[in-house]
């Protein structure tokens, strides 16, 4: 049994973000086999005490995960770990050497829900970029530098893994995809679903790809859907929709914002759409729809890293006319609808269910001896150790007075 620490900037918000569903389910699986803790770095006043956030902490404790906060350096001096998993490369960037100095035996693993520089490249090719080439190059260099300094990284897709290895072949990469529970859902049954109903689920906070997807769909695709099926209606469900998405609301479009449960929307919708034009990593919205038996029409970007069988498990279209035609076919053709409803659910169960991903996690964390530790040079370790202790002393005896 290994001792594993996850480091996150906040509690995993499983009801708001598909990436956090994955993290929560990773913690759930690992806590059944190992001693697991989560350290929350968030220091904003009131965050940890907020009743809504305490629900996340209580839920983690219920599945056997110890929850810590405050000084990470103090935590690392008090508790020994075999592996430290840091969520997001930009969070890991200033922490890796600190962890090496205080826990030289621990494997340092960076978990990333997608490869950021690859997402930038896909966006630039699709719609252009809002940053300069120099800024993108520097961000790519910094991201790859973190991956090189870690002992291993976890990607959600083999495609993301291959992108990293093409740039830095020395990086140790393993793939841990999204993890989906298999609810009791009306798979293969249209009864109880709203006629001509479309659904998009996505977190809009810090996620321009979802906002772009909805503005593009409502501008380019929805008019063609309505021409074929005038009673069609789209529900846009997700956390913190920006003004341009809220402005889409109208006779045929409902924008709900955050909802505590997505199942009532999934179980009453006829078709789920994923019209993403850029992004990287796995798209939780597709897996979530499939496990509820909702057929999916997606762009090819949406299916990155999944490889479902087109026509049996999903419909894929990149042009507005073809996308609208695929939606109309699922509205009208009950046999095609049932084929995708059942096929999509079985696809997720085979590749992204708890049993399938548990085997991957066991291969990684079951015996960590396969993964060598990159150690700091003795002089560097001693110097960094002094700096860490001095910083912690200041935090404990001086700086806290200004934060009280």
TrEMBL record:
Superkingdom per UniProt: Bacteria
Pfam families: Glyco_trans_1_4 (PF13692)
PANTHER family: GLYCOSYL TRANSFERASE GROUP 1 (PTHR12526:SF600), GLYCOSYLTRANSFERASE (PTHR12526)
The name this protein goes by in its record: Glycosyltransferase
Organism the protein comes from: Rubrivivax gelatinosus (Rhodocyclus gelatinosus)
Taxonomic lineage: Bacteria, Pseudomonadati, Pseudomonadota, Betaproteobacteria, Burkholderiales
